[in-house]
Give the backbone structure.
Amino acid sequence: MLEASNTTAELPAIPGKRYFTIGEVSELCGVKPHVLRYWEQEFPQLKPVKRRGNRRYYQRKDVLMIRQIRSLLYEQGFTIGGARQQLSGETAKEDLQQSQQIVRQLRTELEEILHILKR
């Protein structure tokens, strides 16, 4: 297990690559590979691409998600269930904000079309 002093601020920067192996992600996030595989089962948001021989390839968004999960569990003291609930709540909030933004944009466009048609 990790020492409590190893915080997210001490993690290395994420390189500008498209895909990362499980070993690379392990080093980038300070979490052992078997823990990453376990988290894949526990957190539905974590879905690395699997290729030949079930090799996992993580994308940047996956690495960021793993760092967030790590922070929730190791630094903020959440349980697995609590972290899962926290992440699903944040995902729902983001989805709602995106939906509201799309509706506002559509409304603006429709009002512009209506203005043009009234001319």
Notes: The chain is about 60% helix and 5% strand. Residues 80-118 form the longest helix (39 residues).
